[in-house]
Automatic annotation (TrEMBL):
Keywords: Dioxygenase, Iron, Metal-binding, Oxidoreductase. InterPro entries: Alkb (IPR004574), AlkB-like (IPR027450), AlkB-like_sf (IPR037151), Oxoglu/Fe-dep_dioxygenase_dom (IPR005123). The gene is ALKBH1. Coiled coil: none annotated. One of its GO terms (molecular function) is dioxygenase activity. SUPFAM superfamilies: Clavaminate synthase-like. Residues 315-349 are annotated as: Disordered. NCBIfam families: alkb. This is Nucleic acid dioxygenase ALKBH1 isoform X2. Residues 319-349 have a biased composition (Basic and acidic residues). It comes from the Eukaryota.
Amino acid sequence: MEIKKSNIRGDRENRKNHKYSVVRSQLSLSSVSDHDAHRAGLQPVSKWRAYGLEGYPGFIFIPNPFLPGYQWHWVKQCLKLYSQKPNVCNLDKHMTEEQTQDLWEQSKEFLRCKEVNKRRPRSLLEKLRWVTLGYHYNWDSKKYSADHYTPFPSDLAFLSEQVAAACGFQGFRAEAGILNYYRLDSTLGIHVDRSELDHSRPLLSFSFGQSAIFLLGGLKRDEAPTAMFMHSGDIMVMSGFSRLLNHAVPRVLPSPTGESLPCCLETPLPADLPGDSVVEPCSVEDWQVCASYLKTARVNMTVRQVLATDQDFPLEPMEENKRDITSEGVCRLDDENSQVKRARLNPDS
């Protein structure tokens, strides 16, 4: 990445000319105790590295701040717990509630035999593309609503609160989550996360599994994006000016050594967890299923605060007055086998 000093006035010109400077981001060390960080499976904030890009104020990139082994918990939660009812997933439109009742139980034996029988049909977990938590995002209206809500997972809320506080956002409330489950042929189209009613709160993104390319664009869709790698354990925070920037994931990168896990996932979760930790033990059997899945996949958790303090959802207008917002909000995750194909992004565009 070419280094060039810039100021806010020249930021858009710098993005146009692909000239950026990586800068260190200051974290709020006193906002998260070492004990609370450990409870969430994180290193002390004083040991985190945090970076930003000149031209993108409010964008913070934190390379894997997790303690060794603790990513296991969050991977297991995404696959085993968060995919369960009453949370909502992409399979609900094509299957009955009974058929999607416990995707983990229906899939674990398929995944354990994955190495032996490569021609087997895909398990339900391998067909999973997204799960919504808390205020469930409506993919048709591109909105959240008060009447479509289930309790947000307390462990993920705690993790999110610690990361947000370390980035200067004390009092952040985790109210909605969208989990994306990427296969090696999956992409996430260019979009802006604007459906939340409070844009003063950050968007948090947690990555696990295979690496991916992330494109960070501008306020307009035609602004040239900046490409960067996302590796397992990496965290991105989009706030302030960067909160409403276009972004996308055009490619998931297969392991260069074949079907294998990133090195940071080879270390097991410690057996002696703190008594008040939100992280739970992960059995060898459970991790075998998770590892089999992640050798050809990536999981991303995005967490958002939907409402400002004391804010309520607005009353819905009459149906005939609703405007077409199909190009706004969050973009669906696509893969090569999708019946509906979306235009692919060119990382060099």
